[in-house]
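OP here, attaching both records as promised.
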Amino acid sequence: MIFSNVLIRWYLENKRDLPWRKTDNPYLIWLSEIMLQQTRVAQGTPYFLSFTNAFPSVFDLAAAHEEQVLKLWQGLGYYSRARNLHKTAQFIATELSGKFPNNYNDLLKLKGVGEYTAAAIASFSYNEAVPVVDGNVFRVLSRYFDVETDIASATAKKEFAALAFELMPKENPALFNQAIMEFGALQCVPKSPNCEICVFNTSCAALQKKKVDQLPVKSKKLKVKNRYFNYIVVSDDDEKTIIQKRTAKGIWHNLYEFPLIETEQVEDFAFISQQIKTDFFKENTIESLSEMNPESIIHKLSHQHLHIKFWKVNLKGTVANGIDAATLKTFPFPIAIHNFIEKDF
């Protein structure tokens, strides 16, 4: 219990003032936990505030149109989180009368809710004694106890969860879970932690064995795939453009984009202009065609690097289903396209 007591004392003295820590409302805790997957707190907080302002309850979120949800999510990435969030809100509102399941096992049944999120809601909202295991927890426990288990392995989560459960004061699991995650986020950080000021610097096994920079052990990531996107930015006589919805499964599902030519490598002006003339705009005459960014914009996703170019095509006459700049900005786009639109429209 010494570890837990020292950890909780540190937390009470050093914790950040975060909006989702001021409530035990499962809706707000669920919202924050989904947002903070793959997202830093500093980036996620403004989104949390925007969402809770737009959708103060699960019923409000359930009643929203998916495009409104995706628009508010724009820039957070991993858009499947937003789509699952919306579907789960609808399920809770209609099938559960707006009430979240009140235990870990039932929370796990919700779409988009995994072991970590279910544990967070169960402990923070209902004080259930179930440990959270995220990257921060892996790091703190592996270093303090010198655990060399590969955290990418199938058995790692179960092993670390058992260790965390053993350390957890069963009368106050929420406080312990918050404390260990905060300690990993602020003190026991991934690179170059300041061990001199750490409250565990006399008892941490990794520090004593000079292994802090070696733990936690994690096997290498999958190989990154490169993709080459060429977006066609149309402008007709009325200065209207056209967009399309990405309906195929994969990245950016249900977000919008300009007409796309995906190639196997970076292609030159001659190749792209020929593709556009051959495959697009049969009903209009192309007046001019130009490359808007000679250097590709590199947009990095977890397992893909996108090399993005925008090509300006001026058309004679008007295009079918054309939209003006003001309307264009109301649609949800991937952040790379959103940034381009903000800059160039």
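Record two, same layout:
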Amino acid sequence: MSSPILVAVPADVHDHSNYRWHASPDTYLKALIRVAGATPVIVPALTDEMDLSVILERVDGVLTTGAASNVHPERFGVSPSPSFEPYDRDRDRLTERLIGESIERGLPLLAICRGHQELNVAHHGTLATEIQEIPGRMDHRAITHEDQRERYATRHDVAVTEGGLLASIVGPGPIRVNSLHRQAIDRLGDGLVVEASAPDGTIEAVSVAGAKAFALGLQWHPEFWAESDAPSAAIFEAFGAACRAYREQRG
């Protein structure tokens, strides 16, 4: 029996009860286990104290998750302001390495929410914040509700780029998504291709042109409904299949 595929997941850093915690939301971990058929490996955000190559030589894919924090604006040439807070610079350093090295190695990469924005910044793109205040833009923020299922309900369609990576997974679209954010891609990163857009023009999905393997960024949250929503399931299944193909090719 073949060994399970392993997927590296970057940890967020939280200070609580006099400890520093390195953790990841379990919705992503459960989607990897239950739908992608993968075993998640949470990577602590201690980039300067460990050799990431040791991990990347052993895993079969990388998933960068959403988070409560945002990419620090200095990473894309913008001055810090309260509108961009909160930050997690430890995670920034970790995901910059994970994204860059996964693409270089040909490791499958699925980048969601903050991860999608990190992918754009890693390719020298920029982000805009409080996009709901920009004339002509929709309000993409989550509603206030005690039930997470209501907060993460699908709320608008996205147009899927014909002939792209996403279209090969979910079909021609449009598809309905739960895109919850107040930041979004501003200037598209070098070498990235738009895979889906919201009705207001917000870039909702990207891929990496010429990537050696699966490399997809999504602004929405397929992990939340991966067990019940067909497009969400298809995305995690495709990522899992890419990870298994990488494992088989690696030998």
